[in-house]
Amino acid sequence: MNMSFDAVYYEPNALDYKLGQMLKCKYASLPWIEIESHNRIIEMTSADNRDFPKLKKHLIIGIRKTHRYVPNYKVSDWLVPYTSSGCRAMCLYCYLVCNYNKCAYLRLFVNREQMLDRLLKKDASTLVPQTFEIGSNSDLLLENTITDNLLYTIERFAREGRGSLTFPTKFDMVAPLLNLDHRGKTIFRMSVNPQEIINRIELGTSPLSARIRALNDMAEAGYPVGLLIAPVILLPNWKQLYEELIERLADELSYKVMQNGFIEIILMTYSFVQNAINTEAFPNAIQLFDRETMTGRGRGKYCYRNDIRAEAENFLREKISQQLGSMSILYIS
Ligand code: SF4
């Protein structure tokens, strides 16, 4: 992944933190532009949709001030706002675009000690150990390549936490994580899609073969692991694409992943906001909105029609039980 940036926009107080200082040295050759708040950068909110790829080249550095935990009922019990939001990659369906619109660029928050203190306090206060999803606002493995935040987080949580942390990724840069003292308290989830979808839709993410290798390596290093087939995108040849993907996973996933890993499956949702940005910023890209197969789901969102979803679900369950039968499907949503 090319993690080059063309400018840094920063809240001056961020430089009072160790991580802020480290980033200041790391990106000393870039222009540094002072901002009042990472949430209000007028020149970005007022930019045209077609400038989306240009905006993605900016790095924003600030301090996270809101820390609201949202209950969750899938792999984790809580969604936790953590050390970044947004992302340098540009998946055409990225759900962060629904939240941040054009401003889905990478924002780093330098107050990681404060965020992990808070998480550990919550972890200590619950009756039974809980699982905390720390990667719902960004891709933390990608972020880690410039901040090392995962190294800090995984080892400190291993020593001081009771429950588990978890995060998903579409990247393969796991080497720095393999020798950490994680004590099995971080659940690593790799998101996969057919290579053709990665090439045409998941712009700037790691290839499928590298993602499979990274998942095998993490399982070998003793991390609990999961596989996310997500988002499932029903292109005209979707049956062939997903059948080949599942066959490839059966061939290349290690015994450890197959025996201990679980599967999550999420069908794509798409929104009016994403469609507007993609149409203007990537005029030659594949069209993800399909009038024939999709239907409204409130607030400008679209999902596949129920009968189409049911067909996809049956198909995937059948192929997975034939090829990856030892892995349980946690949910299909
Ligand atoms: S890798 Fe994840 S966070 Fe980054 S653009 Fe793709 S979907 Fe969004």
Please provide a written account of the structure.
The protein has 333 residues and is of the alpha/beta class. The protein has a single domain, classed as pyruvate-formate lyase- activating enzyme (Alpha-Beta Horseshoe). The chain is 37% helix and 21% strand. The protein contains 13 helices and 18 strands. Helix 1 links the parallel strand 1 and strand 2. Residues 87, 89-91, 94, 96, 138-139, 170, 205 line the site of iron/sulfur cluster.
Compact overview of the structure:
This protein has 333 residues and is an alpha/beta fold.
Please give the structural blueprint.
Elements: E1 7-10, H1 18-26, E2 32-34, H2 42-45, H3 52-55, E3 58-62, E4 70-71, E5 78-79, E6 84-85, E7 90-91, H4 96-100, E8 106-109, H5 112-125, E9 131-133, H6 140-147, H7 149-160, E10 164-169, E11 186-192, H8 195-200, E12 202-203, H9 208-220, E13 225-232, H10 238-252, H11 255-260, E14 262-267, E15 269-271, H12 272-281, E16 294-296, E17 301-304, H13 306-323, E18 328-332
The chain binds iron/sulfur cluster.
Residues 87, 89-91, 94, 96, 138-139, 170, 205 line the site of iron/sulfur cluster.
What is the name of the CATH class?
A: Alpha Beta
The helix content, as a percent range, equals 25-40%
Individual helix count? 13
CATH architecture: Alpha-Beta Horseshoe
- Report how far the terminal alpha carbons are from each other: 29 Å
Give me the side-by-side strand order of the main sheet.
4-5-9-10-11-13-14-18
Average predicted confidence as pLDDT: 96
- Taken from the alpha-carbon principal axes, the silhouette is globular
Main sheet makeup? 8 strands, mixed
Number of strand elements: 18
Range of strand content: 15-25%
SS-derived structural category? alpha/beta
Bound molecules: iron/sulfur cluster
- Which topology does CATH recognise? pyruvate-formate lyase- activating enzyme
Tally of discrete structural domains:
1
Query: Rg, please?
Result: 20 Å
Low-confidence stretches: none
